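The protein record quoted in full:

***
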Amino acid sequence: MSGDAEELNDGDAAAARGLSVNDDTHDLSWRRRSSEIIADCRVFQVRRDVSVSPHRGSEHNFFVLESSDWINIIPLTTDNEVVMIEQYRHGSEEVTLEIPGGMVDAGESPRDAAAREMLEETGYAATGDVVSLGKVRPNPAIHNNWIHTFVARDVSLRKKPVIESTEHTVVRLVPLADVPRLIADGSINHALVVVGFHWLALHQAGLAPAV
């Protein structure tokens, strides 16, 4: 953060406590004056907005990555193992341990996309329902989309994974009980995968009813 900090008095501190995100005591929304797509990168587009500050009326450039929604899915076998995949990630330049995931295609529901990606990436399919656990914003600072997380129980191997020209995966069966340790020691370090397992834990605790 930049700029001069202002001292808070006791009244300011009291007013800041206990507010919900829906309290509109302050206008925080910027007004977008113009918008243009400046790059098309196949899996996302880069949008440049010129927006007006609600406080000072000044204009600033902001850059947003426009993308369709994403999904990830936790496939569980009858032995309570998670069907995970290892694949190379070019951003971090490392092989990561993940759950299946991908983009929602045009005209496709997130649930159907989750079932499709699971089958394509692992060869496993659900024998029962694919259940929604919840959705979050991947990074609202620069992304405009959602990621939806699902769980599929009693999955079974149906076919070989689909190997694409730019995506090669290795399937790993990981006991669900080992996942907290793998997150803690950094073996699972993909933020959206960690969020997926957090959704599952909330569901198991009765705090996030699946739909």
Q: What stands out?
A: The chain has a mean pLDDT of 90. The longest helix spans residues 191-204. The CA atoms of residues 73 and 150 lie 5 Å apart. The chain is about 20% helix and 35% strand.
